[in-house]
């Protein structure tokens, strides 16, 4: 799993939605062409309002090799932030996958394609 809180030069998120993992960092050209490169795609998780506060970050990137269920996205997001209220907050959130609401569908049956952005929106007070 890749978190937006990761540090160092070990992992780099590419603009194409791919995450590049290498075992050694040297010459960039050698690194990109070397045998130690493993390309993994991501699902970006974006938190809003109370979810952002509970996670302590605005986004997380989940390294994936294929689609996940929405329930798996939630489990993996919560696992990135142990000891927080994130699980409770996400349970109360509405969810967008791309620009489409997940609605009341069973999260185990909702497929989240690789490269998607999953947004968690807590209930808002007021107008």
Short descriptors:
single chain, 127 residues, alpha+beta, Ubiquitin-like (UB roll), eight-stranded mixed sheet, two-stranded antiparallel sheet, 4 helices, 10 strands, 23% helix, 31% strand, globular, disordered N terminus, Beta-grasp_dom_sf, Mopterin_synth/thiamin_S_b
List the helices and strands and how they pair.
Blueprint (H helix, E strand, L loop, with lengths): L1 E2 L7 E3 L4 E4 L6 H6 L4 E10 L2 H6 L3 E6 L3 E2 H10 L6 H7 L1 E4 L2 E2 L9 E2 L4 E5 L6
Model description:
This protein has 127 residues and is α+β, with helices and mostly antiparallel strands. It has one domain: Ubiquitin-like (UB roll) (Roll). It contains four helices and ten strands; from the N terminus they run βββαβαββααββββ. It has helices spanning 28-33, 50-55, 70-79, 86-92; strands at residues 2-3, 11-13, 18-21, 38-47, 59-64, 68-69, 94-97, 100-101, 111-112, 117-121. Strands 1, 2, 3, 4, 5, 7, 8 and 10 form an eight-stranded mixed β-sheet that branches. A hairpin with a 4-residue loop joins strand 2 and strand 3 (18-21). It is globular. The relative contact order is 0.20.
Q: Could you name the CATH class?
A: Alpha Beta
| CATH topology annotation | Ubiquitin-like (UB roll)
Share of residues in helices: 10-25%
Unreliable runs? 1-32
The structure class reads: alpha+beta
Instruction: Please tell me how large the radius of gyration is.
Output: 16 Å
Order of H and E elements: EEEHEHEEHHEEEE
Query: CATH homologous superfamily name?
Result: Beta-grasp domain
Alpha plus pi helix count: 4
- From the spread of the alpha carbons, the general shape counts as globular
Largest sheet: 8 strands, mixed
At CATH's second level, what is the architecture?
Answer: Roll
- The figure for the number of domains is 1
Number of strands: 10
Average the pLDDT over all residues and give the rounded result.
80
Strand coverage percent? 25-35%
InterPro entries: Beta-grasp_dom_sf, Mopterin_synth/thiamin_S_b
């Amino acid at each position: 799993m890749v978190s937006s809180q990761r540090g160092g030069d070990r992992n780099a998120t590419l603009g194409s939605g791919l995450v590049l993992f290498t075992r050694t960092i040297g010459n960039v050209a050698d690194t990109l062409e070397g045998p130690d490169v493993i390309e993994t795609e991501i699902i970006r998780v974006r938190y809003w309002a109370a979810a952002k506060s509970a996670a302590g970050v605005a986004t997380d990137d989940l390294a994936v090799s294929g689609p996940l269920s929405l329930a798996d996205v939630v489990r993996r997001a919560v696992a990135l932030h142990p000891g927080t209220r994130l699980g409770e907050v996400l349970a109360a959130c509405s969810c967008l996958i791309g620009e489409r609401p997940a609605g009341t569908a069973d999260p185990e049956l909702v497929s989240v394609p690789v490269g998607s952005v999953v947004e968690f929106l807590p209930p808002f007070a007021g107008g």
